[in-house]
Amino acid sequence: MFGLLISYQLYRFAFTHGIGLVVLSGFDVLLIGLIWFEYQALKRRRSLEPI
User: Fold this and answer.
1) Full residue range of the structural domain in which residue 22 is found
2) CB 35 within 8 A of CB 6
3) What is the mean pLDDT of residues 13-28?
4) CA distance 42 to 51
5) pLDDT band at 49, cuts 50/70/90?
6) What average pLDDT does range 7-28 have in this prediction?
7) C-alpha dihedral, 12 to 13 to 17 to 23, nearest 10°
8) How many domains, the chain?
9) Is the C-alpha dihedral spanning 9, 10, 11, 16 positive or negative?
10) Distance CA 7, CA 35 (A)
């Protein structure tokens, strides 16, 4: 979903040249990165837990 949102924002940027769209896209990329790192940390913690 974030990928689609970023694609649309960049598509709109091509027509409007609004810097706000680039800022929002950057924020979305940052959010995707944070989610990915948290997911990896959760996977590591679960693999270290005794069953």
Assistant:
1) 2-48
2) no
3) 92
4) 16
5) confident
6) 92
7) 130
8) 1
9) positive
10) 19
